[in-house]
Amino acid sequence: QQPVQSPQAVILREGEDAVINCSSSKALYSVHWYRQKHGEAPVFLMILLKGGEQKGHEKISASFNEKKQQSSLYLTASQLSYSGTYFCGTDGAGSYQLTFGKGTKLSVIP
Amino acid sequence: DGGITQSPKYLFRKEGQNVTLSCEQNLNHDAMYWYRQDPGQGLRLIYYSQIVNDFQKGDIAEGYSVSREKKESFPLTVTSAQKNPTAFYLCASSMKPSGRIGEQFFGPGTRLTVL
Q1: Given an 8 Å threshold on Cβ–Cβ distance, is A29 in contact with B100?
Q2: Where are the beta strands (DSSP E) in chain A?
Q3: pLDDT grade, residue A56 (50/70/90)?
Q4: How many CB atoms are closer than 10 A to CB A80?
Q5: Does A65 contact chain B (CB < 8 Å)?
Q6: Do strands A70-75 and A18-23 pair parallel, antiparallel, or not at all (unpaired)?
Q7: A19 to each of A2, A72, A87, A106, how far by Cα in Å?
Q8: What is the edge-to-edge ordering of all strands in the sheet holding B4-7?
Q9: CB proximity A41 to B under 8 Å
Q10: Cβ contact (<8 Å) for A89 and B59?
Q11: What is the mean pLDDT of residues A35-56?
């Protein structure tokens, strides 16, 4: 089942902060975050694993609440380059595939 | 340079024709994936393969077929049975750390249009 992302879209001014949420109705083993710019391929940002392990870019911050089956991506002091659509992907125990949410479109303006 | 390539970038097909999308990687990754992207729908998994000569259906496999004869190649065939094939198709690959899903590297995509 597809995870639900919120908000669907957000507009920020440079320097502002944003939080993107990802929620699943099933137990999760990991949550993955990707960013896609218009017309380009998605780019990996972070993996959060059950048990607290995280792997990703140093400047990206995220959390994973295993009990609530939720993850949040924190974008601080936003830059114009942060613009794009952010996708979370989830996988449950015994699964070897990611199920992606519909995405959150982030626009950073000067 | 290591990476993942897809060809062609744009593809036009007449209704009733089969078409094959190419995906090649030189990252020595074991796992490969095919996703379909429609506006506002996110990425939906068509097929995936964790090892040569083995692949599994994803959420929307109907009307598609794949093969994995070589580690570096995972072509996708869109058959005439796919009722609405116009979409952006993305191929990805990843290592398999401890059998789990690792960071996925995506190709540039193929935009398929059915005329």
Answers
A1: yes
A2: 4-6, 9-13, 18-23, 30-36, 43-49, 54-56, 61-65, 70-75, 84-91, 99-100, 104-109
A3: confident
A4: 11
A5: no
A6: antiparallel
A7: 20, 6, 13, 10
A8: B4-7, B19-25, B76-78, B64-66
A9: yes
A10: no
A11: 88
